[in-house]
Amino acid sequence: MSKPLKQIHLAAHFPGVNNTTVWSDPAAGSHIEFESFVHFAKTAERAKFDFLFLAEGLRLREQGGKIYDLDVVGRPDTFTVLAALAAVTDRLGLTGTINSTFNEPYEVARQFATLDHLSDGRSAWNVVTSWDAFTGENFRRGGFLPQEERYSRAEEFLTTTQELFDSWHGDEILADQATGTFLKDAAAGAFVHQGQHFDIHGRFNVPRSPQGRPVIFQAGDSDEGREFAASTADAIFSRYATLKEGQAFYTDVKSRLAAYGRRPDQLLILPAATFVLGDTDQEAAELAREVRRQQVSGATAIKHLEFVWNRDLSAYDPEGPLPDVDPVVDEEHISRGRAQVRMYRDPIAIAREWRRLAEANKWSIRDLVINTGNRQTFVGAPATVARTINDFVQADASDGFILVPHITPGGLDPFADRVVPLLQERGVFRSEYEGTTLRDHLGLAHPDAAAGAPAERAAS
């Protein structure tokens, strides 16, 4: 007897300041005007996606002392945008990245509980950490937190916010204002937390929200990050885009759940994915090559090379050969506030390998960056892309995907119009929303459900 088909989860990442974005395309629009967010969100909701995802940057990135070109539009506040989108959508989940290093549990819990009320139960929190002093300079605790303590603080931060969410129970509602009796339980909202990172007590001032707590996402790929997700999160972002790597990650993370009394279906694994569609597979492949060249201009190629070389390479021709000098190590990095900096653990070895590839393939600097950088995850005709996505999910390489289009805000439209109907025909993606909250969309139990719900265990 064959096992039933898994249902695919789909979400959309508003790309904003992202190296997958093609700014030069005539179809590209604003990355900060509200109408761009509205268009993107309504497309995702029209396609019955689970949620929209917004990343957040707490400082503009710099390279060589200048603002990095992708950050010229700035970085709008996540909570403000999501709250506004709650008013123009009805079912779409609203997920935001909020940092646990430079915020406080009370304020974050209050903001998410409020967003959950405003959206009727559609909020989600992507819990991230930050250890770099560059970002911390914008905050009163600038740079104080050693890297090894970031997950310790994140774990206690999440535990503390959950205690705040749980300080209200479902029956603690306003009773009779005429007589001055406001609450059935005088202890409503009361909390006390004493720990390594937080020592707070008081009353939480937002009643129990429709979801009880926001859905929790986690994005770390380290062993610590995987363990944190297995113990606490409802979903984890994955960066693995090939079938073999995806299956290995999927198996590893899911196998960790039993130690926390959780089932494999209580943690979703959702890789980020880019895509290029064409009328035929060949047309899509040609378009994908053009998109990649648009994403990597000559100036962008030089900037990317500087991540590894850690020196000013502006005098080099992007259409010429790689530098014959070695990267600079053991000095402050030329690029500040960029996750890519930490991707290259051994720059000397990377430079040696890149020179070998460039010589063997007769690649210029730009050619090398185009061919070694991130490629589109799904390329092909709509039927090809739909089949490939379904194959990934049914083969347990993921539970779905968070799609990142290269055009803002209309880049999601072709996928919604041409791929989603094919997934619906296969019976692996919803035609209508069956519930109202994000927990409903993701198949997650409410924290107030019977013992054994994942959110109940996450609080323990």
UniProtKB/TrEMBL annotation:
Family: Belongs to the NtaA/SnaA/DszA monooxygenase family.
Protein name: LLM class flavin-dependent oxidoreductase
PANTHER family, A to Z: ALKANESULFONATE MONOOXYGENASE-RELATED, C2H2 FINGER DOMAIN TRANSCRIPTION FACTOR (EUROFUNG)-RELATED
Residues that coordinate or bind FMN: 97, 151, 222
Classification via Pfam families: Bac_luciferase (PF00296)
GO molecular function, one term: oxidoreductase activity, acting on paired donors, with incorporation or reduction of molecular oxygen
Alphabetical keyword list: Flavoprotein, FMN, Monooxygenase, Oxidoreductase
Chain ranges of the Luciferase-like domain: 25-395
Residues spanning the signal sequence: none
